[in-house]
Amino acid sequence: MAARSLPLQRTGGVSARGFTLIETLLAISIFSVMAVVVTFTMFGGVKEKYLDEGSQQFETVLRMVRSEAANQGRRMRLSWNSTEERIVVLWEPQPLAQPGQFVEYTSGSWVSFLPNDTIRIVGSRREGLSEEDALTFGSSAAAKSPSAMREAGDQIILDFYPDGSCDTTIIEIASRDEGDTRIAAVQIDGMNYFITTRIMAGEELASWREEMKVSAEGARGY
Question: What is d(CA 198, CA 189) in angstroms, rounded to the nearest whole number?
């Protein structure tokens, strides 16, 4: 007896087909949007952290320079090179034979971690200096203080001494990201060596600067 062949039956109600042009374009659009979001999240937020992370690293550098001055028994100096727009650490290697002669300090391994890629110094004021003597730096070369320009170190920011003390100073730093308009005000108490950092922008920054101006004038008896 001959075997009977059974008819083929469909196993599902959905027929196999490819993607349409509209579906393909829609998928590409979704993936493009996702790529933009991921890119912004990974890289766009990095620059926004320049000032936050750079100011913390700057505080660490201040502590390291102070410690190095005590360990070496030499005066150390933090300077701002306006031409190259970078923070420089100097020291006085021969205070007796060559007093006041500072050269760049490169011996400490921590020197390579200066936050020059993330922040720049835009101004500083050492205690006892008038508003006219305060250093302010732009993106171009020179400090905008006539009396400071007459000093041997016209871009001196802060001196550290072998006894662990330093100049009481306020340093203003900004992000390398030009889109970030905030300023970090780093205040160093030279005797007690307290460091406080306050990040400000807009009206808060303007108000703080006015307070600092009035305080400086009051301290000098104006």
Answer: 14
